[in-house]
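TA notes, week 10

Several of you asked for a full example with nothing omitted. So below is the full record: structure tokens for the whole chain, then the designed sequence directly under it. When grading your own attempts, check the secondary structure regions first.
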């Protein structure tokens, strides 16, 4: 089968590899129908690399079950599914309290073990999620980033009508924006440095957009909120500038994620 393999940073090739087979009784083989390109995929290919080489990249995907191990229950060949990309050990202190993302011994499709930019992938049954009939493969492949955005939105404990600032509007930011508008946020401010992305944010429901290169973000937002600041900030850019801006625009007892 064909697979997109990373051999070293900036050395990515589409090559022929052996099709994965059932090896353990909880294995599931999936024929990949759609696979997204995450920002972390780009960083791994362009700069960071992965933990071993060569490796098949990609972790945002959906497809059809082809075969299952003999102890797999509630999953059947032919079913449409997506997959949680992080494989937790289930035994460390963090797993025992349900904080799987903090697992001391985790593996990850596309960076620690072979991922989904291939015709087929072998995964653990525990990581498989069935897709509803009204969700197509492309949307199903976005389950991971959609869940990331929802996790951030839940952390701000939003009440209807509250004002929120999104600092940075990449893929997770656009998803967070949609979640915020769906669950009843008041005014949502979106900050970025690219006018094209800000224009798109407006089409997604942003109430006020600010270009951080052309405007003083803190001054604009404090003016819009009569000097009080906003109820919550979701910082999505991960740099020092936006981290400072988050502190500058949040109200007293507000929440920053």
């Amino acid at each position: 089968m064909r697979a997109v393999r990373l051999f070293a940073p900036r050395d990515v090739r589409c090559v022929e590899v052996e099709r994965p087979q059932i090896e353990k009784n909880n294995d599931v083989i999936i024929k990949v129908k759609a696979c997204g390109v995450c920002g972390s995929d780009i960083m791994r290919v362009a700069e960071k690399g992965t933990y071993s080489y060569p490796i098949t990249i990609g972790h945002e995907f959906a497809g059809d079950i082809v075969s299952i191990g003999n102890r797999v229950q509630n999953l059947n060949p032919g079913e449409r599914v997506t997959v949680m990309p992080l494989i937790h050990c289930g035994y460390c202190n963090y797993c025992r309290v349900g904080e799987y993302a903090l697992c001391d011994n985790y593996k990850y499709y596309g960076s620690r073990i072979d991922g989904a930019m291939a015709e087929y992938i072998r995964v653990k049954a525990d990581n498989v999620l069935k897709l509803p009939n009204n969700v197509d493969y492309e949307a199903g492949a976005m389950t991971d980033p959609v869940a990331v955005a929802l996790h951030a939105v839940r952390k701000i404990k939003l009440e209807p009508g509250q004002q929120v600032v999104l600092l940075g509007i990449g893929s997770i930011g656009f998803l967070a924006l949609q979640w915020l508008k769906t669950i009843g946020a008041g005014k949502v401010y979106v900050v970025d440095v690219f006018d094209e992305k800000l224009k798109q944010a407006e089409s997604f429901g942003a109430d006020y957009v600010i270009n951080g290169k052309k405007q003083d973000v803190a001054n604009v937002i404090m003016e819009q909120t009569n000097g009080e600041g906003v109820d919550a900030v979701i910082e999505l850019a991960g740099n020092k500038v936006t981290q400072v801006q988050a502190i500058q625009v949040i109200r007293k007892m507000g929440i920053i994620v």
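The chain has two domains: 2-141, 147-256. Use that as a sanity check on your answer.
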